[in-house]
């Protein structure tokens, strides 16, 4: 079932629409060498525009959502609405530009829109997006960065690589010439290689076995290993318990914790933590309570902010 048919069925069900849709909605203009056309229906203008854009881009195998900036003028009682708009893809990061509202109608509470996109401008815009992404991969490839900083860049640019591949597929489908993809290939190979070597060594002092297991799992959840050859960095964690104090039959223990992140002998970041535990059983039990509170604090930490002080 096409997008426009599915959308229309939903609108008819929701509004019990009695008026027939406009003829151009039921039989939209065919795409030409110059223009791509899309139709949409919705309970408001935004929904109708969204459906029309999805209709266009479904033929490019992307899904879109939009944010409009429109200029409206009235000439000879005909409303001509042109939109300069960036439409972000929901799944690929693809952006469409320079479409115009070709026709519209409002019947029984349902808005209908017919838009058209100039094919040449569309493909030019997609080519420019690809060029910008390739520039970013080239910057990463040529920069002088430590292994840990490079790994973070690889992590954060994965979506860009997926966007680039989507753009390439569309441009190839439309028989457009492609620039050199050497920098993209480098990025994808580097990302693949990095998955085999993501070791952050742990060095712990005065911590319990529970804390060691927790930190290993915490690193693992972020895609790191806590042991292995040639670590990218070393994560030192020290706990300094203060003497237990008994107050009205309750034991109180304060803990001071400190993370030190080192890369190739250079300190990247220092993070200090503190927690207090209370127990009626013993000072050791109060210390265990405080240590658990500290682990809860660590669980909320962004690991990249901790590792790189960003």
Automatic annotation (TrEMBL):
For this protein, the record's PROSITE patterns field holds:
PROKAR_LIPOPROTEIN (PS51257)
Which Pfam families does the entry link to? LPP20
Keywords on this record?
Answer: Signal
Superkingdom, according to UniProt? Bacteria
Identify the stretch annotated as signal peptide in this record: 1-19
Q: Which InterPro entries match?
A: LPP20-like_dom (IPR024952)
Q: Which residues form the Lipoprotein LPP20-like domain?
A: 22-117
Tell me if Electron transport is a UniProt keyword of this record: no
Protein name as annotated: Lipoprotein LPP20-like domain-containing protein
Q: What taxonomic classification does the UniProt entry list for its organism?
A: Bacteria, Pseudomonadati, Pseudomonadota, Gammaproteobacteria, Alteromonadales
